[in-house]
Amino acid sequence: MRIGPYALSSPVILAPMAGVTDLPFRRLCRRYGVGLAVSEMISSRPQLRHHRRTRQRADHRGEPEPRAVQILGVDPEEMAACARNAEALGAQIIDINMGCPAKKVCRVAAGSALLRDEGRVAAILTAVVQAVSVPVTLKIRTGWDPAHRNAVTIARIAEDAGIRMLTVHGRTRACGFSGAAEYDTIAAVKRAVSIPVVANGDIDSPEKARRVLDHSGADVVMIGRAAQGQPWLLGQVGAYLASGRRLSEPAWTEKAAVILEHVQALHEFYGPQAGVRIARKHIRWYLERLGWPAACWRPLLQLETAAAQHDALAGLLQAHRAA
Ligand SMILES: Cc1cc2nc3c(=O)[nH]c(=O)nc-3n(C[C@H](O)[C@H](O)[C@H](O)COP(=O)(O)O)c2cc1C
């Protein structure tokens, strides 16, 4: 599948997740072969443009092409300026977030709240597409609530505005993350437009990815939470979709090396203080996925310095290997 000049190397895309899909995690996931890894969202508010956090989110050093940056906002001109800035910083794809359900985002009518204002959706998409020379993509939910599933209308607006790929998370804003994602609306979107459609929501195994693509007719899948604590899953899904072949689990030594490398990369990227804090949730996800009891990893989450966190984790992994 292509997004403008870029042919995706895999039918799997890593979902943007604020607080998770930073540069260290995206690099790791790219190594396991995802076709695209979208950055955490960047607010279009001008006063945040030069904020340290914004610069970190737009950082793509050492990441393979195409590099995608997601932007969020309500004002067409601010969104256009934000997209131009992201392009100047090296973004090769601009993704627009109209799916975020967070209260603090929806309160200012951004994210999934925009789905209630189709006129504004058209204005934002047109302004951003005209502002940059790189492809612009869009991520939405199926609608605001189950009585207002307008994803098909939004998809047509997006196609008319020049959007090059549309991701649909199979839940409404009202659903938050509860209940199961549904793929009928994604199928209806796929039938309604000719731009590539990405299916997203609750995809957590190679077989599920296959079923979702078969059911929806979507071109590729996007995976978020299932990649937490097991980035290798993305490669397993990609291989299965491409050839029907089920890759075996990575060897224990590979997993241990990846976990340590990830934690070290977080310490380097954020600096020791913030790095230790941000690494905690990843450590927990990794060790939970390995089936370790909380009593085993909880003490690790109390450690305050990068060296203590790294060494304790290395010791734990080593002890497990030797056991
Ligand atoms: C912690 C977290 C942060 C998220 N941040 C974003 C975001 O910044 N932009 C966005 O479009 N979606 C965001 N999402 C939604 C995901 O991209 C995705 O649509 C959702 O998790 C459903 O996919 P999944 O079931 O594979 O996780 C976030 C989800 C989670 C769990």
From TrEMBL:
Ordered alphabetically, the record's keywords are: Flavoprotein, FMN, NADP, Nucleotide-binding, Oxidoreductase, RNA-binding, tRNA processing, tRNA-binding
Is Flavoprotein there in the keyword field?
Answer: yes
Q: Where is the DUS-like FMN-binding domain?
A: 13-304
Q: List compositional bias (Basic and acidic residues) regions by residue number.
A: 56-65
EC supergroup of this enzyme: oxidoreductase
List the PROSITE patterns. Answer: UPF0034
Q: Which cofactor does it need?
A: FMN
Q: Which reaction does it catalyse?
A: a 5,6-dihydrouridine in tRNA + NADP(+) = a uridine in tRNA + NADPH + H(+); a 5,6-dihydrouridine in tRNA + NAD(+) = a uridine in tRNA + NADH + H(+)
Q: What family classification does the UniProt entry report for this protein? A: Belongs to the Dus family. DusB subfamily. Belongs to the dus family.
PANTHER family with a match to the protein in the record = TRNA-DIHYDROURIDINE(47) SYNTHASE [NAD(P)(+)]-LIKE (PTHR45846)
Protein name according to UniProt: tRNA-dihydrouridine synthase B
Q: Read off the lineage from the record.
A: Bacteria, Pseudomonadati, Pseudomonadota, Gammaproteobacteria, Methylococcales
